[in-house]
Amino acid sequence: MAWGSSFAVLAVLAGAKPPVEAGVGLGSLGGQGGYYGARLALFWALVASAPAWLLNGLVAGLIGPGAALNIVGFLAFAAFLWIWLSGLAEAEWPRRVAAP
Q: Are 25 and 43 found together in one domain?
């Protein structure tokens, strides 16, 4: 276990609030969502980007290290990040539809 995480665990055990409960999360940026929406966004980002990660493993196994593996890995990470941040944005700041 890294030293930073050890100190964080000790601080929480000593009674300090975790950063999310202390208002350091997306709520401090105006977010309206909760833990469930954030976890759901992460879950669907992992599920939706899984084929790209499988392709990354396929390239690593068949072609090996090189430019192709770097490109596929970057694209897989970019897809995951894009889907996750889009899901977080939707969960934290839902669109408001004006009533007719």
A: no
For the chain, give the longest Cα–Cα distance.
Answer: 57
Counting other chains too, the contacts that 89-94 makes at CB distance below 8 Å and 24 or more residues apart are 90/41, 91/33, 91/37, 91/38, 91/40, 91/41, 92/26, 92/29, 92/31, 92/32, 92/33, 92/37, 92/38, 93/30, 93/31, 93/32, 93/33, 94/32, 94/33
pLDDT in tens, 54-85: 999 999 999 999 999 999 999 999 999 999 99
Assess whether 53 and 79 both reside in one domain: yes
My answer on whether 26 and 44 are in the same domain is no
